[in-house]
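PT: before anyone asks, these are the final sequences, not the draft ones from last week. 941 residues across everything. Please model them as a single complex and drop the result in this thread when it's through.
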Amino acid sequence: MAATQTNPLRVGLRQERVISPQCLVIFGASGDLTHRKLIPALFELFRQRRLPTEFSVLGCARRPWSDDDFRNRMAEAMADEVKQHQSAWQQFAACLFYEPVDLQQDEDVVRLGTRLEALDRQRATRGNRTFYLSVSPAFYGSGCRALANAGLLKDPSRSRVVIEKPFGTDYGSAQSLNRVVQSCGKESQIFRIDHYLGKETVQNILVLRFANAIFEPIWNRNYIANVQITAAETVGVEERAGYYETSGALRDMVQNHLTQMLALTAMETPGHFDPESIRSEKAKVLQAARLANEDEPWKCCVRGQYSRGGNPANPMAGYREEPGVNPESTTETYVAMKLFIDNWRWQGVPFYLRTGKRLPKRLSEVVLTFRKAPVQLFDAAGGTPTANQLVLRIQPDEGAGFVFDVKAPGSGMRSRPVDMHFSYDESFGEPSDEGYVRLLADAMLGDPTLFTRSDEVEAAWRLYTPLLELIEDAPHQLPVYPYEARTWGPSAADNLLAEDGLMWRRP
Amino acid sequence: MAPQLTLQAPLQLPPSEVPAYLNRLWTDNLKDSSGAATFTLVVWEPSWLQQQLIRTGRADGPITGLLNDQLLEAAREAIGALGLPASTAPTAPDVAWALGQLPGSHGAEDLRGQFVDRAISAHQPRRLITLAPTLAGDQQLESTVAAYCPLPEERGVSADACGDVVVLRGGMGAMQQGLAMLQELIPSDLPCWVWWNGTMDESPELLEALAVPPRRLVVDSSIGEPRRCLDLLVQRIEQGQAVNDLNWLRLRTWRESLAMVFDPPCRQSALDQVVQLDIDVEGQHPVKGLLLAAWIADRLGWHLLNSFWIDGGAGEGRGIGAEFQRSDGQSVQFRLMPVPVGVSKMHPGALVGLRLICAPPQRPPLCVILCSESGGCMRLEAGGVASMELAEEVVPLPNESEEMEMARLLGGGHDSTNPLLASAAALAAKLLPN
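LR: through. Structure below.
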């Protein structure tokens, strides 16, 4: 008999929290994100019975679509899913509505308010609304203002706004945008989304640290020698050249995703597991973080850009040869840097961050390397003793590993490292929800734990301000080193660690 | 409604005037508001246990309808004093019935319907109607109404979040009389929940009249005669009504603990090789155990061949046995046994332990034992399980009140029954021998 493929007892058990009746309003509903991520995530929630019956989605964009147009386009974009779950889709599609809205036009916003009231009556959604701004960042401020002016944000307990990244392009613009957004509603209504925080393994950093008594006592400068945080991609810039040329790896990955991993890894223990306690600790640790050398930031940061690579069978274009990219572009596709955190827990412990496109592997991980044993009693089989390492694998092969020495088999007393391995797949079998499923559910639940607060965003931008200013004012001091596609970045990045007698982990 | 602002003192009115009064209240006095566009919650709140404990001087008033620690303690003491088996749960109808045989005439203020758990009032019911039957069967119908709004600090002062509370109090005959007026009070354009917070086999005609589809019914299948509980669940679900069973919801920790054992893919194939399932429950109410067994059988695709009573021997109650057939034709034996406990949990038929034995070919048998946090399960640990691969877990006690569970349902409910409950209830009804 064939083995059971998934755990049949697990079905239907993921109904921990119930989303209140409400209407989710998606601005930019004709865009990619809506049919690629948002509607599939909502459909998944619907199939898991995590959406209440009193629920509706109102798609809004400038296109003059009808409700049926919207439903049909979503069904076309999700053809495979719809085919697999036709009956569920029919029920779900009945929750989908559309209203042509240009948020810059007052009369459109007034009409939106009227439509929402009608939907409240029609679907019994109790006036609860989540507004998802899946629009160009240039419209975040004006979009929020339009909603506030129409009175759609006046009740903080029944209206929320979800904003996609990037939230600002530097410290100043993030501050300005925060001021605008906060003038439209309370901070508790603003949900700044960072889809990395939707990943199970990123959230697991919190559980691993604070649910186990063994880690926290050694999670500090007395026991940890350094921390490496890596987010590596194998893909190039793909179709995002227009956006990427203005952002680069520093804004696209480091300021948000890597910084969030840094904050979760380094934050102090929150007093309670509630959103504000956690976000306060994250903000505090980011405020204590600094570049290893703020006066001469070029000494603690390396930028790179991928050049041609691959092999004759699978040649890969260099960044400057990609469609839509300036042939003279100095946009970085790779960044490595060294940070310190000036607090009692982490003083003197270097944090190394790196991210890049067209690297040999797609992976994200946090690696904590512990100090070596004070006295070496045993010869190491590999020549030099290995430091203990705790590896938190964010993706792929989600899980954790712990590297420690054991006695090598044989008559002597030599030590050699082994890896104790935990894998989500092996332990749980079930795939985790896609990040947007978790984050959309949390936003509709009004739970901001996994969303970034204004002070976190500002602290993150302030941390990288010396680098952004240097890139702006004296780019020659922070040159973009070329690296061959599908290699681990420029050699200058290796030198950054070599100066400290270290090496990047080769995962 | 503790966190809310009373717009008026609770007003006692002749029942016949209540509908007109509420209409006037919203159209004249609160004319800027049509009230919260949320839902109506109708609660059948007999609180027989509390009423009897107070009447016999074993507990202090007022009558609130809320079960607190002092009441449970008083009920446990009464169980001993009344000579009921120690395994009797405090909320078992037997306790209130036995207390009803004792003399006593202590009185207390009746505040049922006016003490609403914060978790429920936070959802701002548009109308909360409490039916509060009294011990005196001939008591005339009384009605109390009040309107409420959220406190300003709770949220922006907006009249469209306001609601009202109606309490109908009287003897059973009066309750019947008030039924027609009550139907008039339920707004047809909002979802309506009917929480039958009493025994499932009492006042069937009232339940029938109140819980009319598409109203969403909330019951507790641990309270009432088991056959009636299961048949009612099945009948309502088959009618297409959205039914929520608090007894089923309380199984959550057991289902989660069992699922956790089989999460590692290396264990999942053992689920195809189950040969024996044993469940121990407190006292003589098997519904919770049957729901758990039925859920397991349904999820694993077993087919029920037969079920029968088992004589538990001297001093023990009757158990239930059954034989299932797996999808590969092999047999699975099921036993549900009542076990005596020193201190019972709050609800009848609480689970004590579960044992699942899997016999994969060419491998040692796997025995999974789940034990309740509050008690051991020595009976299940006996019988040669030491020679098997043993996976033993302790199931934590749920720490949420009925009101919290109810609030969770009200917060985001469905207009259909959870398909897992629907399947499990139908199978559990077949498992219970006639």
